[in-house]
């Protein structure tokens, strides 16, 4: 397990890219406060058939911000990180969502993380139903976080 500054997770979404996204949250602190506190740790996995095992990045949210980004390079790293839930989708799904955010300034209804989970394009998993529920409880703040992708260079360019 490595801090974002020392290792990437590959695929469409590297830990370094998430670090840039995390930095963007400081410019939107008031919007995050308006949505309420967030207390969750979760992982994002981008699957790429050509690359083999999915890459993963851990995100830790505390109070009103993303406090930490962690590159999870192995299954053991993911297990030690102990996420409340994991969001997993093919690289292409993440790229399409981020392109949509960039084009529109925020995700349209077909590209929100909630819609992607409900449609089956993105898999939500957890080993604990109460911890999985945190995805739904904090969905507004998590979506705002992803919508900030409109302000940072795309993963392909990062």
Beta-strand residue fraction: 15-25%
What is the quaternary state of this protein? single chain
- By DSSP, the count of extended strands is 6
**Total domains:** 1
Write down the CATH topology.
Answer: Nonspecific Lipid-transfer Protein, Chain A
Q: What is the percent of helical residues?
A: 25-40%
Structural class: alpha+beta
Radius of gyration, taken over Cα atoms and rounded to an integer in Å: 14 Å
Poorly predicted regions:
4-10
What would CATH call the homologous superfamily?
SCP2 sterol-binding domain
Report the sheet with the most strands, covering strand number, pairing sense and barrel closure. Answer: 6 strands, mixed
Q: Average pLDDT across residues?
A: 89
SSE string, helix = H, strand = E? EHHEEEHEHHEHH
- What's the total helix number? 7
- How would the global form be characterised? globular
**What's the architecture in CATH terms?**
2-Layer Sandwich
Side-by-side strand order of the widest sheet: 1-4-3-2-5-6
